[in-house]
């Protein structure tokens, strides 16, 4: 899998700074702010329940190539700047899907045998897309996919996207540093982006705390698999594949 274009983009020249590289470089000067934000993110995910056991395998068989099983759904419901594009495109390409619905809160891609891939950054949009599809195809297999990323590369990447830094060619290094500091000081800029997706998914799938899931990922070399806890949930019968973005090179292997 390739990372998102903003991660790979080479913008540096002698006259204009590479916005993302520069932001990452100066992140280390913001230790106090970064620590507070990271702590708030962990607290958001510190639910009372936890997933027991580490031996896991993906049982839904979403290996590459069109499926003969009708109505299956892969929903990438993922925090912004945590590999959403790469994850979605991996399934779109391997399943042979084409553009579908362009809703303000989600995108869909139509696959062979009435299958579908969903892409959403907010859990509400993902829930709506999954619900719509499963009402028509209640027996189709269901996989929900999300990822987590280290705050060190995620925060500057999110900053570059939200502030459209790459489009502001007149910004100097000094101005960018001050702007980045100011943006980080508004904690809601980060918390809002984070809480739109992952906390709700972990709650839906009885995932426990982020610390517990990190231990599972360490044991499994980059991933965790969860099952929906409630038969009343729109995700009932689905599995949640929770990935670590720093190990994106293993995603094709994990998914297969």
Describe this structure in words.
- With 256 residues, the protein is α/β, with parallel strands linked by helices.
- It is 43% helix and 16% strand.
- It is built from 11 helices and 7 strands.
- Strands 2-3-4-1-5-7-6 form a 7-stranded mixed beta sheet, sandwiched between helices.
- A hairpin with a 2-residue loop joins strand 2 and strand 3.
- The longest helix is centred in the first third of the chain and has 14 residues.
- 37% of the residues are buried.
- The N terminus is likely disordered.
In DSSP terms, counting alpha (H) and pi (I) runs of 4 or more, how many helices? 11
Helix and strand run: HHHEHEEEHEHHHHHEEH
Query: Overall mean pLDDT score?
Result: 78
Ranges where pLDDT stays below 50 over 5 or more residues in a row are 1-55, 57-61
Shape: globular
Amino- and carboxy-terminal Cα gap:
13 Å
Arrangement of strands in the largest sheet: 2-3-4-1-5-7-6
Structural class: alpha/beta
What is the radius of gyration?
Answer: 19 Å
Proportion of beta-strand residues: 15-25%
Number of strands: 7
The major pleated sheet works out as: 7 strands, mixed
Helix content: 40-55%
